[in-house]
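FAQ

Q: What does a record look like?
A: Structure on top, sequence underneath. For example:
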């Protein structure tokens, strides 16, 4: 059967299959990245059926790398890093070093040479920024102290790996993998030139880029065209990454990272991150699919012990190392566990290192297969570990005088004893204000919140708290919706809110439900599922402005 043009077939096949498998992974509460990687395995040459064009997929993946690293740079905050530098800097350096040495030893046991051992160890030592950032955001941990420590740790790791990408070509010369004669002088010159080019590039970006890039974005922003602003952000990311590779012989990854880092200091950085997110996500999917196409599933049978050793090093090994280091640096056990679980997987930087190692002749192809197998297995396990952490932490939330129903890891939820009460789902900025207003008016309030710190804040405010995910049937059943007077959905996620609406309607068909929305599509979605009233922020602001104008006109008319 005619498959169509290779480029179109590769993009369509990759995205469609990635969507199907990622949806299944999401249903199983596994990271969607696993679905993307498995889509690549299915489309790869080692499995029967349709085979995508690996060459084209690799080029698309390069764009994915650029946008991924640009996004990492946008999240790089010197201020946040400095606030946790006492833990993140020494901890990340020490943990990365120990993991790299352990990975090198494992490679040597497998019979590989030192060059392969170094690449293999480095690939296993760094965690996936994408996976961790998504997990922290999902559990509302990004703005907590332990979340900042974990992110700061990741930033230091990423910087170390960027430095490693610069030095790997020099290592190839040192080990003779490049096929050229090796001399100490030649290696010194190679390292010096590589570092010199990087320094020059960074200086140019810090001196000129810090002024020109924000100036360009401000000019485009004042044009009022959102489409042009989005295009400007993408042009900056792709243009600087490509220019850095051509002019300074710097990798696409480093060029994009520095571009994002420079842009992060602009007041428009958040808008730039938001505008580039859809395309970043799309090409990130193609990046992971292209990586999966390189996986030979046979490695599980040809190298079972090496795969097992790799998984043991990645999950319990790196986690225990990080936990010990964080505790030694006198941070709390909860912070130590958060950092430990964050490090117990590998991802995008590991793939980039493996690919560069193979292209330089340092790493054998089976090494890449082992790394990819370890990545898939660790990414599957990681969300389960985060869920365990959140359930464990939920048990430590302080109990107020009013009744609190908690959600321990291995216990049945205790239903609330409240009746004629209002149930507020979410205790963020919106939920906090709503719950406080109802409480002041004398109405009993039950807050449902899965973030332990926000739940503790609600409990400290004298509110009854149910700790758990509101989309879970056992949690929503414990809220006594049969006896409730109101259900207020203050969470920003319309899909999760929709699940709550459906379950609430099944429990109490007459319960008034008020939901929060961010767009007309979300309003229609929530109303279609059974919400009585939806409030969209932008609409309420506009109505508030109109009400103020009308009140001012009436006041002016009265005074006349």
């Amino acid at each position: 059967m005619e498959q169509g043009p290779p480029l179109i077939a590769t993009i369509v096949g990759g995205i469609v299959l990635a969507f199907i498998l990622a949806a299944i992974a999401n249903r199983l509460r596994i990271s969607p990245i696993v679905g993307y990687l498995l889509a690549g395995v299915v489309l790869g040459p080692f499995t029967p059926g349709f085979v995508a064009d690996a060459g084209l997929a690799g080029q698309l993946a390069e764009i994915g790398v650029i946008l991924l690293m640009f996004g990492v740079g946008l999240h790089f905050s010197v201020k946040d890093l400095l606030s946790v530098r006492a833990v993140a800097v020494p901890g990340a350096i020490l943990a990365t070093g120990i993991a790299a040495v352990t990975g090198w030893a494992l490679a040597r046991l497998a019979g590989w040479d030192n060059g392969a051992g170094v690449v293999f160890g480095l690939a296993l030592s760094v965690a996936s920024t994408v996976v961790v950032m998504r997990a922290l955001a999902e559990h509302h941990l990004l703005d907590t102290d332990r979340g900042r420590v974990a992110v700061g740790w990741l930033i230091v790791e990423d910087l170390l790996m960027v430095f490693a990408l610069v030095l790997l070509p020099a290592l190839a010369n040192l080990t003779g993998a490049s096929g050229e004669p090796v001399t100490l002088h030649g290696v010194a010159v190679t390292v010096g030139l590589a570092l010199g080019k990087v320094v020059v590039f960074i200086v140019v970006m810090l001196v000129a880029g810090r002024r020109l890039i924000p100036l360009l974005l401000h000019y485009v922003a004042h044009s009022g065209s959102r489409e042009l602003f989005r295009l400007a952000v993408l042009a900056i990311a792709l243009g600087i990454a490509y220019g850095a590779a051509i002019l300074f012989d710097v990798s696409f990854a480093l060029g994009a990272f520095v571009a994002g880092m420079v842009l992060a200091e602009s007041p428009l950085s958040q808008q730039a991150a938001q505008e580039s997110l859809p395309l970043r996500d799309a090409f990130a999917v193609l990046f992971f699919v292209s990586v999966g196409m390189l996986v030979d599933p046979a490695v599980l049978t040809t190298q079972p012990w090496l795969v097992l050793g790799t998984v043991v090093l990645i999950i319990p090994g790196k986690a225990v190392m990080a936990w010990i280091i964080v505790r030694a640096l006198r941070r709390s056990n909860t912070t130590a566990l958060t950092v430990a679980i964050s490090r117990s997987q590998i991802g995008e930087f590991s793939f980039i290192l493996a690919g560069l190692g193979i292209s330089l002749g340092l790493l054998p192809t089976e090494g890449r297969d082992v790394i990819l197998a370890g990545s898939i297995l660790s990414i599957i396990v990681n969300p389960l570990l985060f869920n365990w952490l959140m359930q464990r932490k939920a048990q430590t939330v302080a109990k107020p005088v009013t009744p609190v129903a908690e959600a321990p890891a291995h216990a049945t939820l205790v239903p609330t004893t409240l009746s004629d009460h209002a149930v507020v789902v979410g205790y963020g900025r919106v939920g906090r204000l709503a719950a406080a207003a109802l409480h002041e008016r004398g109405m009993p309030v039950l807050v449902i919140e899965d973030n332990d710190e926000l739940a503790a804040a609600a409990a400290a405010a004298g509110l009854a708290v149910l700790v758990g995910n509101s989309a879970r049937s056992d949690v929503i059943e414990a809220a006594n919706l049969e006896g409730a007077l109101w259900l207020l959905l203050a969470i920003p996620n319309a899909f999760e809110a929709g699940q709550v609406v459906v379950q609430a309607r099944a429990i109490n068909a007459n319960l008034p439900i008020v939901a929060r929305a961010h767009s007309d599509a979300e309003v229609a979605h929530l109303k279609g599922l059974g919400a009585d009233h939806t409030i969209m922020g932008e609409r309420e602001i506009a109505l508030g402005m109109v009400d103020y104008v009308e009140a001012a006109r009436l006041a002016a008319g009265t005074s006349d």
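Q: Is there anything notable about this one?
A: The first strand starts at residue 422 and ends at 425.
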